[in-house]
Amino acid sequence: MAEVGKGVNAGKLASNVQKRITRAQEKVLQKLGKADETKDTAFEEEVAKFNKQLIDGSKLQKDFKAYLAAVKTMHECSKRLHDCLAEMYDPEWFGKEEVDSIAEDTDLLWQDFHQNLVDNALISMDTYLAQFPDIKARIAKRERKLVDFDSARHHFASIQKSKKKDEVKISKAEEDLGRAQKVFEEINYELQEELPTLWDSRVGLYVNTFQSVAGLELKFHKDMGKLNQNLSDIMTKLDEQRLAKKGVTTASAGKSEEAANHNLSESGSDAPKSPAKSPESRERPPVSQSPRPASSQEMKQDNIINLSEDEGVAEINISTQPQNETPTVTNGSSDAELPPSVLYKVKAVHDYGATDSDELDLKAGDIVLVLPFASPDEQDDGWLMGVKESHWLQNKNLLATGVFPENFTQKL
């Protein structure tokens, strides 16, 4: 029984060797132009499409696997980053439990995203490409069967043309030709049906792949955005907690700096910074208050009494100012009568350039008449309201009032 099996295998091997020799001879004759070759242009176009489709599909599969590897790497980096935050986050800080929960949810979100990409895109892509090796093998088989068909056709034609007719050889050659033609036509028909269908199926693969990736990315980034927003809110509240604890210290430091600036202005050193001014105090109408009794220092004396020590007799000199005489402006040195609403005078010790329309421009040496604010709530710390004395002496009105930093002036 073993000898029979060996004989069958040996016979099949000899047949295969003979087929290869025959095919090689046929191809040589076709290349030399001594034998015609069966051509199928339409099928060759389908084969070209098949090869392109295989190359494109393999490239897409390779790039998608690289994308999955990048997602995996991002997942690992994200996990390490959140683990680092959880380790550094002190238990007494705001939102410690929420931070740990966000880290766990972020890790699960990355895992689900990666697994969904594998299930919805990679598996279908692998299934699509799995059919190409079989079809590629059958295309190669068709090429061999086509050579066998051409060889049988040429052999049958040569026997028919021989001068000595041998009916047995002709019959066998015709039988071999029919068998070769049948095998070739069967596989050729199958491939002509499958290749166009396979070519069209690439559209479905592209749609499924990129639609799945787009949808999964959209959901992933939406859910991840919510977690990131929650984490950002926790960080904001943590910062507010920190600032609240430092509020008293910051306020004390601010007052100390303001006092230092004021002392610098009084000592005649470099010009200090103007204090901050609230937006509500940017625009204020001129302030007018009801007159108050003028002090004896503010009243101009018309009668001057000089006492003589030697004679002990008072000499009284009465001097009156002409009614039409304009008082001389000497940058605040005039003793002209001031409006009753003036609180006191200050002298600018540094130049100050106005930065808003409601501020006064000051030059060192200018005298300013300080006026009260309409409401104490309108006054900012470190700011005064007034009018230049030179304007009052020239125009006798308080329309040119404005605010100015107190630490740029010295009270007279």
TrEMBL record:
Name the UniProt key words of this record, in alphabetical order.
Answer: Cytoplasm, SH3 domain
**Alphabetical list of Gene3D superfamilies matching this protein:** Arfaptin homology (AH) domain/BAR domain, SH3 Domains
InterPro entries documented for this protein: AH/BAR_dom_sf (IPR027267), Amphiphysin (IPR003005), BAR_dom (IPR004148), SH3-like_dom_sf (IPR036028), SH3_domain (IPR001452)
A GO molecular-function annotation:
phospholipid binding
- Cite a single Pfam family from the UniProt record: SH3_9
Q: Is Disulfide bond one of the keywords UniProt gives this record?
A: no
Could you state one GO cellular component term attached to this entry?
Answer: plasma membrane
Could you tell me where the Polar residues compositional bias lies? 287-300, 318-334
Q: Localized where?
A: Cytoplasm
Domain called SH3: residue spans: 341-412
Signal peptide range in chain numbering: none
Tell me if Phosphoprotein is a UniProt keyword of this record: no
User: Per the record, which residues fall in region Disordered?
Assistant: 246-300, 318-337
Q: Where is the BAR domain?
A: 28-244
Tell me what this protein is called: Bridging integrator 1b
Organism, as annotated: Cyprinus carpio (Common carp)
